[in-house]
Write a structure and sequence with these properties.
The structure is a single chain. The protein is α/β, with parallel strands linked by helices. It has 2 domains: about 1-175 and about 355-370, Rossmann fold; about 185-350, Rossmann fold. It has helices spanning about 15-30, 35-40, 45-60, 60-75, 90-100, 110-120, 155-165, 190-195, 215-225, 240-250, 265-270, 280-290, 305-315, 325-335, 335-350, 355-370, and strands at about 1-5, 30-35, 105, 130, 150, 170-175, 205, 230-235, 255-260, 275, 295, 315-320. The chain has a 6-stranded parallel sheet, with helices on both faces. The protein has a 6-stranded parallel sheet with strand order 9-8-7-10-11-12, sandwiched between helices. Strand 11 (about 295), helix 13 and strand 12 form a beta-alpha-beta unit. Helix 3 crosses helix 4 (about 60-75) and helix 9 packs across helix 14 (about 325-335).
Length: about 375
């Protein structure tokens, strides 16, 4: 098959999902083309400017982003009140489809999915189109006409899509696609040994995505320095060197380890007894695949708050709203092994292994039905 995957570089999650799918399609022997919608089909300057605005909102005015997200959920994806933003890149997308002639299209971001829908509204005949939802919530901007399959994270998310009018036969529960290393078991004691961590003390891993500054890791450092029991703490600052320096100062004298960007997150998660993080879609998916209990803190307004609510309802995470509550819940989690085991049981229930392969199977099945 010839497969076109449409993504966008807003956060790292969409591209991570796209590359996980590339690997699964290539494993099958398919030819795959990945297109960054805003960079390649709109304009590189628009891509840079819009991502800069997005990141600035997350850092300085997250409530504004939350309000925009809520408004977007109220509007249909083709609403004229969106001022054409869901149609940007549509004509170039049409030209790319004609040039590549793919047998199937997979979207891992809502905007290119809406652009595909706009082409359907123009009466164009398009190849089967699957949308892979990378968050744990049904949002209006993911809902568009002409989408043959919605691949979603969990049964609860699937029911939410059906409740919002998507025919049940178009919704496939696959899990969120993660990197291949997350589908392979990793021995926890071996991971600790590789990282130079003691097998005798609990390990707390704290992270906030590749852009650590949009999380609240200094609060996590504050809580870790006030624990009444010994712990091995590993804090991942991502690409933010200034944040790393702040975390080093906050945890001075405690033995906590502060890291920058770490590509091998799988080993860290395997070594951890508890992960403290905000509820980004890909972080949540990777933690579920690694089967590590979570304590959610610093989740941003918008999709992350919805992801956090899903995680709390599913019984896979604790959720703290203030740093004092964070400290209280952290103390409790470390003092009650049965609580951590309860969270692990919840993670096992919602885990859908080999999600990328499941999605590939759904795409292939739909393509064969249409051929």
């Amino acid at each position: 098959m010839r497969v076109l995957i449409l993504t966008a570089s807003y956060g790292s999650g969409h591209n991570a999902a796209a590359h996980a799918l590339v690997d699964a399609f290539v494993e099958r022997g398919d030819a795959v083309t990945v297109v960054d919608h805003f960079h390649e089909l709109v304009h590189p300057a628009f891509d840079r400017a819009s991502r800069a605005i997005y990141m600035a909102l997350l850092r300085r005015a997250p409530m504004v982003w939350g309000a925009a997200y809520a408004l977007g959920d109220w509007l249909p994806s083709d609403s004229p009140l969106a001022f054409g933003m869901t149609r940007v890149g549509t004509q170039r997308l049409g030209a790319r489809l004609e040039a590549l002639a793919p047998d199937a299209v997979v979207s891992v971001h809502a905007t290119p999915a809406a652009a595909m829908s706009a082409l359907v509204a123009e009466g164009r005949r398009l190849p089967p189109h699957t949308t892979v939802v990378t968050d744990f919530v049904a949002h209006s901007q993911w809902l568009a006409r002409g989408i043959d399959r919605y691949c979603v994270a969990d049964d609860d998310v699937g029911r939410e899509f059906v409740a919002r009018g998507i025919p049940r036969e178009r919704v496939v529960v696959t899990g969120v696609p993660v990197r291949a290393e997350f589908d392979a078991p990793v021995d926890g004691p071996a991971a600790r040994q590789a990282l130079g961590l003691s097998p005798r003390l609990p390990v707390v891993l704290a992270m906030a995505g590749s852009n650590g500054s949009v999380g609240r890791l200094p609060d996590v450092a504050w809580a870790l320095t006030r624990l009444t029991r010994p712990v091995q703490a590993v804090l991942v600052a991502g690409h933010d060197a200034a944040l790393a320096e702040t975390l080093v100062r906050e945890t001075a004298g405690t033995g906590a380890r502060v890291l920058g960007f770490v590509p091998e997150v799988r080993t860290l998660m395997a070594a951890a007894d508890l992960l403290i993080t905000k509820a980004g879609g890909m972080t949540l998916a990777e933690a579920i695949a690694a089967q590590v209990p979570m304590l959610l803190y610093g989740s941003l307004p918008g999709q992350e708050r919805h992801n956090a609510r899903f995680a709390a309802r599913a019984g896979i995470a604790l959720a703290a709203r203030s740093r004092h509550e964070l400290l209280r819940l952290l103390e409790r989690a470390l003092a009650e092994p049965e609580l951590l085991e309860h969270l692990r049981d919840g993670v096992r229930r919602v885990h859908h292994p080999h999600a990328a392969r499941r999605i590939v199977a759904a795409v292939v099945e739909r393509s064969r039905q249409r051929s």
